[in-house]
Write a structure and sequence with these properties.
The chain is an alpha+beta fold. The chain is 20% helix and 28% strand. It has two domains: 1-52, 2-Layer Sandwich (Herpes Virus-1), CATH 3.30.40; 99-191, Roll (SH3 type barrels). It is built from three helices and nine strands, in the order E-E-H-E-E-E-H-E-E-E-E-H. A hairpin with an 8-residue loop joins strand 1 and strand 2 (27-29).
């Protein structure tokens, strides 16, 4: 049913458009919202006015203070510059875009390693490996090692920082694991055929 006119019908020249924010009045006839074409992604006027933010595309990734952030552009906010968003701030309906971006990065890193390239924080043999972790509530989550943080001399102390591996799970969660933890997670994924 159209959220503007209330009619249920749809035709080839006036299809029902779906608001990508999945709002209460998520369908609208193309002519009711004064569009002459069917857009790929579309936000209804109430969602734009609220404003509701839905990611159009992911353009970059960085790790600041061991927190992963993504550079994203927003649907219906194209005039605004892209923003860096922490994983916890990525809207649930947009996590598939982040997962697709990470998959692309993982494939590129694996291709670089096969071609003898690599370097930086991605040179460790664990980067790109599939992991599985059994959490206390019984659920097993699958993910990949995406970054390696080598042990470093700490400026304020006389010791070394711990070597860590950044893991991003398929559900969008992430964490840093030490060498023993990541080794166990890789072994669990391999043993479980995951």
């Amino acid at each position: 049913m159209c959220g503007t006119c209330g009619n249920r019908g749809s035709s080839t020249d006036d299809p029902l458009l779906e608001c990508v924010a999945q709002c209460d009045a998520k369908h609208h006839h193309m002519k009711c919202v004064e569009l002459a074409y069917v857009p790929v992604s579309w936000l209804c006027k109430p969602c734009v006015d609220t404003p509701v933010f839905v990611i159009r595309h992911v353009m970059g990734k960085r790790i600041e203070r061991r927190r992963t952030e993504y550079l994203v552009g927003w649907i219906s906010h194209e005039a605004e510059p892209p923003t860096w968003q922490a994983v916890s701030d990525i809207p649930p309906g947009s996590r598939n875009l982040v997962n697709a971006y990470n998959t692309r990065l993982r494939i590129e890193a694996q291709q670089q390693q096969m071609n003898g390239g690599g370097g930086g924080n991605n040179a460790h043999k664990f980067v790109g490996k599939k992991v599985a972790k059994n959490f206390s509530h019984g659920a097993v989550y699958v993910g990949y090692v995406t970054e390696h943080y080598p042990a470093e001399m700490e400026e304020a102390a006389s010791g070394m920082s711990e070597e860590l591996f950044h893991v991003e799970y398929d559900d969008g969660d992430e964490e840093d694991l030490d060498h023993g933890e990541v080794s166990a997670a890789i072994a669990l994924a391999a043993a479980g055929g995951i």
